[in-house]
Amino acid sequence: MTRTSLLSLTSAALLATVASAQTITWSPVLPTLAPTDVSLNGTLVVARNLHSSGAAQTPTVNGVTFVGNFAPSGWTNASTAAMNGSTTGDLGYDQMLSSARATSAAAPANPTGWGAIRIDNLVPLTVGGNYEIQCWFTDQRLGTGTAALYDRAMTLSSAVGAATLVGGEVSNLGALVQGPVSGLLDGDPDNAPAINSPDVLFGSYCIGTFTRVNATDQLWLLVQGSHPNPANLLRSHLTAFQIRDVSPTWTAYGAGCAGVAGVPTLQLVSLPAIGGTFALNVNNVGPGFVFMFTGLSSLNIPLPLPEFVPGCTGLASPDLADYAPTVAGVASWSLGIPNLPALSGLHLYNQALEFGGLWVLSNGGDATLR
Fold this sequence. Notes:
By secondary structure, the protein is mainly beta. The protein has 2 domains: 3-245, no CATH class; 249-368, Immunoglobulin-like (Sandwich), CATH 2.60.40. The chain is built from 2 helices and 29 strands. It has helices at 3-22, 91-97; strands spanning 25-26, 30-31, 43-49, 60-61, 64-65, 77-79, 100-102, 115-118, 130-137, 153-160, 165-166, 169-170, 177-178, 184-186, 204-211, 219-226, 237-238, 240-245, 249-253, 265-270, 277-283, 289-295, 298-302, 313-316, 320-323, 326-327, 330-336, 347-355, 359-368. The strands form 8 sheets. Strands 1, 2, 3, 9, 15 and 18 form a 6-stranded antiparallel β-sheet that branches.
């Protein structure tokens, strides 16, 4: 093998590794039950309700507004009345679940074809940001014979690269980096009201996560249709989806009080990622000792005590105090975050305390673990 071919293979492997970091990893599929299905994790980036072109449906569910009139390239077919008269008890959720869009690719192209929706160009995605995507599929209509619609199911996946679409389906999937596949999103898990009753399961949804690595890469949501009877119409369908930013965050708040070297000021070094290390510096530190307070509550308590420099305010509950070593006027502090998903969304509040004859406090910091 020549050096040139070896370099080409190495470059291709590196590109594939980077691209695969952006593909979506899916959690288990869950049945659609109630408006509280709609995730409120992190911050909403975009939410879309897919429906027939003649409709104008922008329902709000669990506080999230799913904007309608969304028409992905090549997705020109649509189902209507997909709830088949059932109700979740919430008008907005019923409206969102009642219809879906589908690819226009000819039936013989399925089930091998993956319908594709480009998602990186809906809104800017921050490089290094962690995102959650939630997708729904519902179809409770009866149908007849080989077109028994309530047994339709969709599988989700993703791909990175420059896709070519035909009728909404990727025709060059082999040239892309495809990510993992989800479980089956059954359009009507309890087959009600089509053939059973009562109706308590209104389709399925699935949540996936991904990290944005490269600002110029195309990122595609893939959907593939299936049915127990392969003679059924197997076009890719999707009811709705939302993308949420679930990156860890840190925000400074409040004001410190001036010591010998100025006002001690918190500076972020590394974000509070679950399984990682959360780190802060304290700038403008004078001679003496520095401790970092970490708490579960933010405070706003003036401290007009003789031990403190005037104007000092307690901003974080001192549930934990760590010594922060100082070098050249900068104190350093870090905290390992356990790899426990249950910690996601937890707030930690920080404030530095400097002692150099008098007590001096920094500004505060609000960290959200993700």
